[in-house]
# Entry
Amino acid sequence: MTAEPILQPALIYQTERPQDAPAVEALIDRAFGPGRYTKSSERVREFATFRPDLSFCAWHDGRLIGVVRQYLVEVSGRPVIFLGPLAVEEDERKHGAGADLVEHGCEAARAAGYGAVLLVGDEAYFRRTGFAAAPAASIRMPGPVDQRRLLLRALTPGGDQGLAGPVLPPAK
Ligand SMILES: CC(C)(COP(=O)(O)OP(=O)(O)OC[C@H]1O[C@@H](n2cnc3c(N)ncnc32)[C@H](O)[C@@H]1OP(=O)(O)O)[C@@H](O)C(=O)NCCC(=O)NCCS
# Structure
């Protein structure tokens, strides 16, 4: 007897649209729980400019299964992209969607002309997608944060160099 092939629909990655916001918010709430709004990243997002054109949704057979949002901030007088939240539905994890979302976000930021992406997260996870704590050592978040969790990735040669001081709202 010949086994039937199992057809798994591929993930579709798409920039976030206004109508996606309720599902995106619900997914982020499920992934981070009630601590979501206490994070110092949230203080940054309060003054940063949301960039839906650099934020991505992962869809599986019509269901939203992952999201990465990105914002514009300024550090050392240079525009920098602030990545997060990143979240994948629990039953869809460990298949690469998280890394793919980060990659899509970084590629879109690079194509838009930005030199670096900043985030707060576990280096053990984000180093796989090119982030490191060392170049972010002199950057200051608005709230308390474990400095080892502040990570940078260069999008252009040297884009992660020379960034120091506070994370500020973007220049108008
Ligand atoms: C972190 C998260 C987005 C990863 O999504 P994902 O689709 O499973 O990611 P990937 O498939 O690209 O990578 C999975 C791998 O990363 C590992 N991993 C996940 N979180 C990790 C962490 N905090 N530290 C180290 N490794 C981690 C997994 O164990 C897995 O390892 P394996 O490849 O050896 O099996 C998902 O676990 C999630 O939504 N977590 C809750 C929200 C969160 O913590 N977001 C990140 C902080 S901004």
The mean pLDDT is 95. Helices lie at 21-32, 40-47, 97-111, 123-126. Residues 31-32, 84-88, 93-99, 121-122, 124-125 surround coenzyme A (CB under 6 Å). The first helix runs from residue 21 to 32.
